[in-house]
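Hey, sorry to bother you again with one of my protein questions. I've been staring at a protein lately and its backbone has me curious. I owe you a coffee for this, so here goes:
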Amino acid sequence: DKDKDKDKDNVIYFDTLKDLHEKEVFDLKNIIAIKQNELEFIKEHIEEKNAALSSQHEYLDEKNKVLSELQEHIEEKNKYINHLILSNSKNEEQISQLHSLNINYENQIQLIKKSNSWRITYPLRLFTHCLRWLIVRARI
């Protein structure tokens, strides 16, 4: 009888253990299902973020292309500016030379006007000027 009672107790004990084990397995399956749902949600969230990131990469690629084109344009303009600076330097040099020539010619003109021959021929030049004026007036 004792052995039967012991066997019965063992059966009850193992049945209880089995029930507890089955409940733990059930609980673990539920936890796994919840975690799988969370994982799916996280995967969807990551896919959305990846899509947004991809869109931002495309936007940045377009902006980088525009930036690159603008940098090329700036380089061209800088080359043109450097060309203009060089040209301006040459022009300033020419202006300086022409200014020197002009001063030289002005001095020569002043020397001519102060010369005796210029003062002596003044009446002749005045007469010629008046004669031309009269000829022009006569044509009108």
User: Anything to note?
Assistant: DSSP finds three helices and no strands in the chain.
